[in-house]
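Bumping my old thread because nobody answered last time. Still need a sequence for this structure:
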């Protein structure tokens, strides 16, 4: 066995210093790795030889990339080129559009832990003097209320519910070039000027370093339709569409949750999946065997399946075949937690005042009453731009959106470990508890160890006893 580290991410200031010292600037491109790896499948040369060849002739490596990635359609080659990107002074609304792209890693400045409330952006759509002044009035009022809550002893994570989505933040992102191409295309297709600008900047910076790996970034009408979906809210929302299980905490209404689709016979089918894999028998035969087990026998089988799970272990892979689809109406603050589970299916509608507002339970009735003028001002400002998607910049983090969320049971185990935990944000935690309770109704054995990290030792002891 032989292992070499072919490359790794380094700070651009180090690259600049190396260039200043006289090293060839063309060598500082991830295209070399992509070009070398692209030829592994059809060349008898070693990986080290392929990389050396790519380093010696970067123009040839770039031509090879273009041919293999775009002409032959082997797009996965672009995934070998990885970038770390700082994004600053970006709105809270735009951060969500960035983080909808799944195959990437993001770390965002958290409004739960960092005092914010001073830095905002004015979107290009709010260009008239009157519109700009209206949004600035809202931002000033929101900041004043936010800091008054902090002075009154309200935690930052609760006070932020009253800050607009035009508040700016920053994040660090790690993305491969294939994801970056998709991202640039999506931003070009967005109806939001802020996203268009970000897409242009990304395209310019990435193309300067890896021009052979980014090509298809001009949106078609199809892309414009798909990437704008959910950005145009309808104020005339049918009240019946708000039905579902009300999720609450300490008497506070946090939104609604409805189970749209779920699998049948989950416990039996999970055991059948396990038998089929372990014994190498057809699923139909395994299903008959699992269905013939008594309740006590099934319980014994699940103890054997789940009891070895440790706190940080992933649930068995068989659980990936069983998915639950939910309709959730939740606040922007709670969605900020949900969106991190990017390997699930997430489809969002626009934020809308018609879906209600989530007040943190920590606020007193008097403080909630004091927030009413700010929320009303937010609504009035929103209506200046509605139904354009840019109207959402005037809404607050306590405003809600409708989300359709599909996750398999293995992902639900991960979700519950993080979001049911005592350290989790209270808003999303309430939804995590409600989901887990619903899943246990149809899959009591499979979901037997569905819980937060803080309760895991107790639940495991109870499950295995």
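Sorry it took so long. Here it is:
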């Amino acid at each position: 066995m032989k292992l070499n580290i072919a490359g790794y991410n380094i700070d651009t200031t180090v690259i600049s210093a190396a260039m200043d010292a006289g090293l060839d600037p063309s060598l500082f491109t991830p295209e070399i790795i992509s070009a070398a790896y692209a030829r592994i499948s059809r060349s008898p040369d070693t990986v080290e030889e392929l990389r050396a060849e790519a380093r010696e002739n970067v123009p040839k490596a770039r031509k090879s990339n273009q041919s293999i990635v775009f002409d032959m359609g082997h797009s996965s080659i672009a995934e070998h080129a990885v970038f770390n990107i700082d994004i600053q002074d970006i709105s809270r609304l735009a951060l969500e559009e960035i983080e909808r792209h799944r195959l990437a890693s993001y770390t965002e400045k958290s409004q739960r832990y960092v005092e914010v409330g001073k830095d905002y952006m004015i979107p290009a759509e709010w260009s008239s003097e009157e519109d700009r002044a209206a949004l600035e009035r809202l931002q000033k009022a929101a900041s004043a209320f936010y800091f008054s809550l902090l002075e009154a002893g309200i935690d930052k994570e609760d006070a932020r519910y009253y800050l607009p989505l035009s508040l700016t933040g920053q994040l660090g992102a790690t993305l491969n070039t294939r994801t970056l191409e998709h991202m640039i295309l999506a931003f070009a297709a967005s109806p939001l000027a802020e996203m268009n600008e970000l897409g242009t900047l990304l395209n310019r910076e990435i193309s300067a370093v890896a021009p052979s790996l980014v090509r298809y970034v001009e949106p078609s009408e199809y892309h414009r339709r798909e990437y704008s979906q959910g950005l145009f809210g309808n104020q005339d929302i049918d009240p019946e569409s708000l039905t579902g299980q009300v999720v609450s905490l300490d008497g506070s209404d946090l939104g609604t949750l409805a189970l749209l689709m779920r699998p049948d016979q989950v416990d039996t089918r999970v055991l059948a999946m396990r038998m089929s894999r372990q014994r190498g028998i057809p699923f139909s035969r395994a299903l008959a065997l699992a269905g013939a087990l008594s309740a006590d026998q099934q319980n014994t089988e699940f103890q054997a399946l789940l009891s070895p799970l440790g706190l940080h272990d992933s649930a068995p892979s068989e659980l990936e075949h069983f998915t639950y689809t939910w309709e959730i109406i939740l606040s922007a603050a709670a969605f900020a937690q949900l969106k991190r589970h990017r390997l699930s299916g997430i489809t969002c509608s626009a934020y809308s005042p018609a879906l209600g507002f989530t007040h943190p339970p920590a606020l007193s009735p008097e403080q909630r009453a004091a927030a009413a003028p700010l929320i009303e001002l937010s609504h009035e400002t929103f209506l200046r731009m509605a139904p354009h998607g840019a109207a959402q910049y005037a809404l607050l983090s306590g405003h809600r959106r409708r989300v359709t969320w599909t996750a398999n049971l293995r992902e639900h185990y991960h979700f519950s470990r993080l979001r049911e935990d005592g350290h989790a944000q209270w808003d999303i935690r309430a939804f995590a508890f409600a989901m887990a309770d619903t899943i246990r109704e149809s899959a009591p054995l499979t979901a037997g160890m569905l819980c937060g990290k803080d309760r895991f030792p107790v639940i495991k002891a109870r499950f295995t006893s």
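The chain has a mean pLDDT of 91. Let me know if any region looks off to you.
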